[in-house]
Amino acid sequence: MEEVTVLMSVLNGMPYLPEAVDSIRYQTFQHFRFLIINDGSTDGSQDYLGGLNDHRIQTIYQSTAGLGAALNAGLALCETEFIARMDADDIALASRLEQEIEFLKCHKEIGLTGCQISYIAKGSRTGMSSQLPCLHERIFEDLLNGEHAMCHPTVMCRTSLLKEIGGYRISGVGQDLDMFLRMGEVSRLANLEKMLLLYRTYEGSVNTTRRREVQERCAHAIQCARQRAVDRAEPSFEEFLGIWRTRPLWQRATESLDIYASYQYRHAVADMLGSHCLRGYARLGWAAVCSPMRAVRRVVRAIRSRNG
Question: pTM value?
Answer without folding.
Answer: 0.89
